C-alpha cells in the first residue's frame, strides 16, 4: 500500500517557511544595495568600530531588514484575506519586478538628487512613493499598512539614532532625514507586493478521492 500523504497543514507550513526565506533574502539584498547608495552620498554615518564590519554597515542591519521584509511580506496577504479583499491589481511577476526597480530608483533619488532644501526633496519623494502605491497596488490595505510601517519604522530609527547606534548627516526631522518615512512607505508596499505574489503560489490541483 502506498504511504498516506501528510495533512495539508504541513504543506501550508512548508510553504510559509519557503515564503519567509525568500522574503528574508530579498530584505537582506535590498538592505545591502540601498545602504550602499546611502553611504555613497554620506547620508548615514556609523561609528568607526562599526564601519570596520562587513559591507561597510552594521552587521545587524541586513538581518533586521530581512526579518522585517519577511514579516511585512507575510502580513500583506494575511490582511487581504482577513478583510476579504483579495488583491488582484497587476498580479504578475513582471509588475512586481518593475515595482522593485521603482523602489530602488526612489532610494537612488534620495541619495543623488540635490534640492534647495530637504522639504522639497521630501515632498518629491512622498509624491513618488504614493505614485508607486497607485501604480502597483491601489488597495486600501496596502495604503494603510504602508503608512503604519512608515510610522513604526521611523519611530524605531529615531530611537536607534538617539541611542547613538548610528546617525544621519544633516538631520532635519528630529534625529533623521525628513524623507525617510517615504522610503519606509514605498519599501512596505514593494515587499508587500512580493509577499502577495509569493502567496499566490502554484494553483491547487483538484483533489480526487
Automatic annotation (TrEMBL):
Pfam families: INSIG. Its main location: endoplasmic reticulum. One of its GO terms (molecular function) is protein sequestering activity. The lineage of its organism: Eukaryota, Metazoa, Chordata, Craniata, Vertebrata. It is found in: Endoplasmic reticulum membrane. Mediates feedback control of cholesterol synthesis. This is Insulin-induced gene protein. One of its GO terms (biological process) is positive regulation of cholesterol biosynthetic process. The gene is INSIG1. Interacts with SCAP; interaction is direct and only takes place in the presence of sterols; it prevents interaction between SCAP and the coat protein complex II (COPII). Associates with the SCAP-SREBP complex (composed of SCAP and SREBF1/SREBP1 or SREBF2/SREBP2); association is mediated via its interaction with SCAP and only takes place in the presence of sterols. Interaction with SCAP is mutually exclusive with PAQR3. InterPro entries: INSIG_fam.
Amino acid at each position: 500500500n502506498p504511504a498516506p500523504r501528510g495533512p495539508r497543514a504541513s504543506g501550508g507550513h512548508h510553504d510559509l517557511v519557503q515564503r519567509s526565506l525568500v522574503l528574508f533574502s530579498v530584505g537582506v539584498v535590498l538592505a545591502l544595495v540601498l545602504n550602499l547608495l546611502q553611504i555613497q552620498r554620506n547620508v548615514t554615518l556609523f561609528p568607526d568600530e562599526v564601519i570596520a564590519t562587513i559591507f561597510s554597515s552594521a552587521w545587524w542591519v541586513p538581518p533586521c531588514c530581512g526579518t522585517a521584509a519577511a514579516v511585512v511580506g507575510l502580513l500583506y496577504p494575511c490582511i487581504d484575506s482577513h478583510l476579504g479583499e483579495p488583491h488582484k491589481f497587476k498580479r504578475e511577476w513582471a509588475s512586481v519586478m518593475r515595482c522593485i526597480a521603482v523602489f530602488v530608483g526612489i532610494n537612488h533619488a534620495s541619495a543623488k538628487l540635490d534640492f534647495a532644501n530637504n522639504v522639497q526633496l521630501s515632498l518629491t519623494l512622498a509624491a513618488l512613493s504614493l505614485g508607486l502605491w497607485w501604480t502597483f497596488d491601489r488597495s486600501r490595505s496596502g495604503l494603510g499598512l504602508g503608512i503604519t510601517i512608515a510610522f513604526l519604522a521611523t519611530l524605531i530609527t529615531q530611537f536607534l539614532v538617539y541611542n547613538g547606534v548610528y546617525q544621519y548627516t544633516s538631520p532635519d526631522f528630529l534625529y533623521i532625514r525628513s524623507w525617510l518615512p517615504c522610503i519606509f512607505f514605498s519599501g512596505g508596499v514593494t515587499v508587500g507586493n512580493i509577499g502577495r505574489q509569493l502567496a499566490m503560489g502554484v494553483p491547487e490541483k483538484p483533489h480526487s478521492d
